[in-house]
């Protein structure tokens, strides 16, 4: 989960989906990404995010959506990108009866200990590549820990 669901979280979703597919674990995982805000609902990921993913042989058909109460009741894990997202998600989860999702920073799984995945929106292609690399490290470690 990220603020707008057009940069970091779609990259993380696509990376994780590819890892799960490569490991032939699709039947064990339901993967999605969402935003804490409604700013970009219905929009495709940022063109730089799509370009970065394509450079790594990953395609996505994701469209931005806002997180729902059902997400907190359905998903086992909700991973987010920074402290602001974490605060917003914890606040939202407190309003949900039967919240089963464990909410945490994706960066807690980073073997290089980079806790925060910075928003590359105001940056350049290199910043999107940094997000991709962080997401790849974190998603691999999360997947290894989770199965």
Automatic annotation (TrEMBL):
Acts on tyrosine phosphorylated proteins, low-MW aryl phosphates and natural and synthetic acyl phosphates. The gene is Acp1. It comes from Grantiella picta. This is Low molecular weight phosphotyrosine protein phosphatase. PANTHER family: LOW MOLECULAR WEIGHT PHOSPHOTYROSINE PROTEIN PHOSPHATASE, LOW MOLECULAR WEIGHT PROTEIN TYROSINE PHOSPHATASE. It is found in: Cytoplasm. Keywords: Cytoplasm, Hydrolase, Protein phosphatase. Belongs to the low molecular weight phosphotyrosine protein phosphatase family. Residues 1-145 form the Phosphotyrosine protein phosphatase I domain.
């Amino acid at each position: 989960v990220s603020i707008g669901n057009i940069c970091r979280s779609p990259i993380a979703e696509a990376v994780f989906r590819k890892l799960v597919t490569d490991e032939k674990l699709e039947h064990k995982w339901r993967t999605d990404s969402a935003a804490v805000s409604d700013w970009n609902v219905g929009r495709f990921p940022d063109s730089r995010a799509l370009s970065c993913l394509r450079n790594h042989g990953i395609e996505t058909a994701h469209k931005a959506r806002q997180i729902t109460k059902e997400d907190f009741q359905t998903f086992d894990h909700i991973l987010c990108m920074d402290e602001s997202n974490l605060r917003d998600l914890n606040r939202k989860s407190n309003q949900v009866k039967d919240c089963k999702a464990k909410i945490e920073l994706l960066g807690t799984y980073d073997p290089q200990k980079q806790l925060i995945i910075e928003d590359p929106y105001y940056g350049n292609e290199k910043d999107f590549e940094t997000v991709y690399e962080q997401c790849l490290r974190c998603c691999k470690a999360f997947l290894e820990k989770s199965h």
